[in-house]
Amino acid sequence: MDLCGACAVLGLLVVPCLSARILFLHPLYSGSHEVQLRGLAEHLATARGHHITYVKFANTVDIPNNHPNISLITLTVDNRDGRHPYISRELQGRFDMPLDVLWEHGHLPHKIPPDAFRTMIALCDTLLGDSELLTRLKRQNIRLAVIDLFTNECGLAFAYQLGIPLVGYWALPLNGGEADYAAGMALTSFSPISPSFMSGLTDDMNFYQRMKNALYKLLGTIVMRLQMFITNNLIQKYFPGTPHPTLLLSNLSGVLANVDHSLDYPRPLPPNVIPVGCMQCRPARRLPEIMELFVRGSGEAGVILFSLGATFDPSWVPKETLKRFLKTFSHLEQRVIVKYHGEIDMEVPENVMIVSWLPQQDILGHPQTRVFFSHCGKQSAMEAVYHEVPIVAMPVFGDQIDVAGMLRAKGMGVVVDKQALEEEIIHALNEVIYNYSYTKNVRKWRGVMLDQPQTARERAVWFLEHDAPRGTHTTNPQGIIVAGEAPESDEEREEFLHTLEILESNHMSKSCSVNSNTSYAGDEKHLSCNNGEVESNCAVSANDTVLKLSSKSQKLPGKTHSSPLAKKLIPAECGKMFVKRSSLKVHLATHTKNKPFICEVCGQGFSQKVSRDIHLVRHTGEFNVS
């Protein structure tokens, strides 16, 4: 082939690709959350050519970064005096997950220790007070932010200052926490047949279970209200005028939800909630040689994989617990691979291999793996379904209780308590291994998981590249505040003051030929186009959301003239200007008796915007939400 022909062929192979800078903001450490988000970030950097800035807090289990397109920024907390719990006592303090508390009380929502809120405050103060980081991120021309929402209201408010579309990531089931407020799910996330967070219930409940479900929901709501109160105070301390966390959550451009129909109950979802469960799942690869020989040597009996994730730590798990497990495994005909990092000062049965690290998906995908004895974390459960392996679930804390109940309800496994006796564990393992119905159900739900036009990762990438950059207007059912509209900068504020000077001249045509748009430039052009050529001066009216320009006798032709720079700055009654929305609200109370939403026709105040809009119908005959 000549040179011209080769160039033509190469030209046909070129695929157009526009790279962008994307921010990933990760809160306190949770292994499964970071594995998911880091995997998505690496895929965007490798396969799609994007540049990723990954911001996270330092922790005792760091995942190294070796990708040239990923810039990892690790934050630390000054904890030399030891006043912050669950953070190492040093200048560059690292978050240290309280695994002992989780092991003992992680299944009881009312046992959340007060120290958890103190740790959250320390992390919030560190992130929100890092002005250098904010300046650095603003200079990078970041186009989109992906924020892990779990206990991360401060991270959401921090990213809001960048003025870019915000996408949430939710790693847990859609049954509580920030998910109740995110992207329009507040109206659909809870119903009498949807199990509440950490209840361990299914969608098949009797009357007493429904009462328990309602109580768990009430308890979860109280915890979230307290958390929102704490974080909002911190947010207003550093960024006054930033919307309340509930508004930031409800106006996300979208949410990547770690759910899949195979491991969830039927529920309605808004179009901007994208199911991306099992995003990390992949076909099995060949095992390391030593492990492969051990698995093959199991013969027809097969292998059991035992892993409790990061929660099974030798520093705080009682030695009696490990002894009990090893003694139980010694009575099985199957071989057992145990994930446990730490010194073993007890006899290990011949049919047991203990390793500090293992390729979990490669073992699950091996044809001789019979059952997965698991803590039932969301990622592990999905990987088991993906590889057609039934589960014996031993939940330890948090959403693991709900995931275990869901697996049992769908016939894909059984549940045992972490304090179960040897006989109970052996009975559960034999039940799942020799009762073919569990394997049959896992295969059925695997088909549901895979029989889709796109993989979970493809859905996530498509949404981030195509839908999320458009903001909330195309998908969000609430649209209270446009996501990504940050508070005004100094330059924008100067422009707005210039607009006020034009307004003070009071020269505007009642029938101007210029059709202004809703941008600042359009307003200024409209206000100055017919200076000095009018008989009727322009009257300025305003509420706490939009500045309107109207004639004394009638509305100006065309659509409402508004400027985003005027939002939340001018009260209706006196025209006094405030930079901070909080100051405006205090001032409005002097006119409206704590009713900040003003009728522009008669001046009556209302406590809610929708009440004001309904009232306006009496004057105009139209329901017009400005």
Number of strands: 17
Helix proportion range: 25-40%
Biggest sheet architecture: 7 strands, parallel
- Main CATH class of the largest domain: Alpha Beta
CATH superfamily of the largest domain: Glycogen Phosphorylase B
Number of domains: 3
Detail the poorly predicted runs. 12-16, 478-489, 495-573, 622-626
Strand order of the largest sheet: 3-2-1-4-5-6-7
Any idea of the CATH topology of the largest domain? Rossmann fold
* Overall average pLDDT: 77
**Gross geometry:** globular
Structural class by sheet pairing and helices: alpha/beta
Notes on the protein architecture:
- This protein is an alpha/beta fold and 626 residues long.
- It has three domains: 274 residues, Rossmann fold; 162 residues, Rossmann fold; 131 residues, no CATH class.
- The chain has 20 helices and 17 strands.
- The strands form four sheets. A seven-stranded parallel sheet has the order 3-2-1-4-5-6-7, sandwiched between helices.
- Helix 6 crosses helix 7, helix 10 crosses helix 14 and helix 17 packs parallel to helix 18.
- The longest helix is centred in the middle third of the chain and has 32 residues.
- The N and C termini lie far apart (65 Å).
- The C terminus is likely disordered.
- Belongs to the UDP-glycosyltransferase family.
- GO terms for molecular function: UDP-glycosyltransferase activity; zinc ion binding.
- It comes from Timema cristinae (Walking stick).
